[in-house]
Design a protein that fits this description.
Number of helices: 20
Order of helices and strands: HHHHHHHHHHHHHHHHHHHH
Shape: globular
Largest sheet: none
Structural class: mainly alpha
Length: 500
């Protein structure tokens, strides 16, 4: 069930209404049933996978808590084996459904270089929606219990709700038990202000998804699927727009998820903080997909040694973490290249920092002015956007061919069309849609600028007269309804991160 579907517009109000009407002691049971119904609307059979992961990690948490109360080498060894078994089981399921075909194909291609023919068994399976997200959330719980940071959850049904909570089940945010589990026990009563706050955030999420992301997707999809038909400059324009497509698609989903949870009284992790206003790649990653970035920091980067083991090992840890992050996003070498590039950017940035600092002093370059920050921001965006080309490409080979096409067929004039009002070749978009896209992007960047400046937008809105607030609320609703992109017969388009 997609957030931007008619089914969800029926499902969500019913869930919320019943949730606030039923007694406190059964609220979590109602949400658990609703969450499994939400997930099973895609493929009922795959509910078994999330159930297996839930049972395995819940039982492992109980065993780990028992072993933690014992002393001696046997107890420590038992803890390690319990953790290892749980990790192998969960990652094994993830590997089979998400990475088996990729791994088998890569091995076959490797041996073919030596003229050795290999044929791995073929399994016709679909990638379960959200498997990477709920697997990482479940494993984070086990790691935290193993470290003694949280107690093991004894109530299986409450734990099952923690893993399957429908607003963030399919594409995050990846919640930690320290945040979400305790909220399963808190009383949640109806609060009009909180509901309004949640609905407004959901409306902003729908605006990002339907008005911006799905409109940009029309252009980007056509260019990337038929890049040889376009000029190098048009490919670059599509790549720049894809940066905003994926931001609005995933950021929109996250805002809808956080808003839906807030309506019911739950507080989820903020997943984005104005990432395209970042002035370094490191800062970009502190504001992009925050729940996943911190997951890799806490459970991959730091266990590898983090930055506590010398400069070159720190760089190794950084590159490994980003390479694994790339692979998490997709079973393809183009995703590994995307993750590796983001790691390389940060290594180069750290290595060249003394040189850049010295150059700034010698040339008397001011670093406390707006023009310097603007240059930093544009440079960061160019590097990040270059990596997005690999992310969006269908394969690594396609990405390299697109880069070659950009160099060999730049054709700057193809990007402009003097016969149109905007003077730009809008490619597969109509001029009206292109104009709506530009205005919407301007609104997005303005709102992100205010967020970056820590402006309390909700507080400012609440202090306005009621006619102005209504103008904003209804204006947002009608903008989504009028300018949103809907498929034939109002088919909802999926979210990009559902494939991960």
């Amino acid at each position: 069930m997609l957030f931007n579907s008619v089914n969800f517009l029926i499902f969500f109000p019913i869930v919320v209404l019943v949730y606030f009407l039923i007694p406190k002691r059964v609220k979590y049971l109602w949400l658990l049933g609703a969450s499994y119904y939400f997930y099973m609307s895609w493929n009922p059979k795959y509910a078994l996978l999330i159930l297996i992961s839930t049972v395995a990690t819940w039982a492992s948490g109980l065993f780990l808590s028992v072993f933690a109360q014992q002393s001696g080498k046997k107890a420590k060894r038992a803890k390690k084996w319990c953790l290892a078994g749980c990790v192998v089981l969960n990652l094994g399921i993830l590997f089979f459904f998400k990475y088996y075909t990729f791994a088998a194909t890569s091995i076959e291609e490797f041996f073919s270089l030596f003229r050795i023919s290999m044929r791995a068994p073929v399994f016709d399976v679909l990638l379960p929606v959200g498997i990477s997200f709920y697997t990482f959330q479940a494993l984070a719980y086990v790691f935290d219990v193993y470290r003694g940071e949280i107690p093991a959850e004894k109530n299986f049904l409450r734990y099952a709700l923690f893993i399957s909570f429908f607003p963030q089940l399919v594409a995050g945010p990846i919640e930690r038990s320290k945040n979400l589990m305790r909220q399963m026990y808190e009383p949640h009563t109806f609060d009009l202000e909180r509901v309004k706050d949640g609905l407004l955030l959901m409306g902003w999420g729908f605006f990002q998804k339907l008005v911006i992301a799905d409109r940009i997707a029309i252009l980007v999809t056509d260019v990337y699927d038929n890049f040889s038909d376009y000029s190098g400059m048009q490919i670059l324009l599509a790549t720049v727009l894809f940066a905003f497509q994926i931001y609005c698609d995933f950021g929109g989903y996250s805002d809808i998820a956080v808003g839906a949870a807030r309506v019911m009284g739950f507080t989820l992790t903020k997943n984005f903080k104005s990432p395209y206003y970042a002035t370094t790649v490191s800062e970009f990653w502190r504001g992009w997909h925050i729940s996943l970035t911190t997951w890799f920091r806490d459970y991959v980067y730091i266990p590898l040694g983090g930055n506590r083991c010398g400069r070159w090992k720190k760089y190794r840890n950084l590159l490994l973490t980003f390479a694994v992050s790339g692979l998490w996003h997709g079973a393809g070498w183009n995703f590994v290249a995307w993750g590796g590039l983001n790691g390389i950017y940060q290594v180069i940035g750290d290595l060249t920092r003394p040189f850049r600092t010295g150059l700034q002093k010698q040339l008397h370059i001011r670093t406390d002015c707006g023009s310097y920050h603007l240059l930093q921001g544009l440079t960061t965006f160019i590097f990040v956007d270059f990596a997005w080309l690999f992310f969006r490409s269908n394969t690594l080979v396609d990405a390299l061919q697109m880069l070659r096409h950009v160099i060999t067929h730049p054709d700057l004039l193809a990007t402009f069309d003097p016969d149109t009002l905007l003077g730009i070749n809008t490619m597969t978009l109509s001029e009206k849609d292109f104009f709506v896209m530009l205005v919407s992007l301007a609104v997005l960047m303005l709102v992100d600028h205010w967020k970056k400046q820590k402006v309390d937008l909700k507080g400012k809105l609440e202090r306005q007269n009621i006619w102005f607030r209504c103008l904003v609320y209804y204006g947002l609703i009608f903008t989504v309804l009028i300018f949103g992109i809907y498929g034939p017969e109002y088919d909802a388009s999926t979210f990009i991160y559902f494939q991960f």
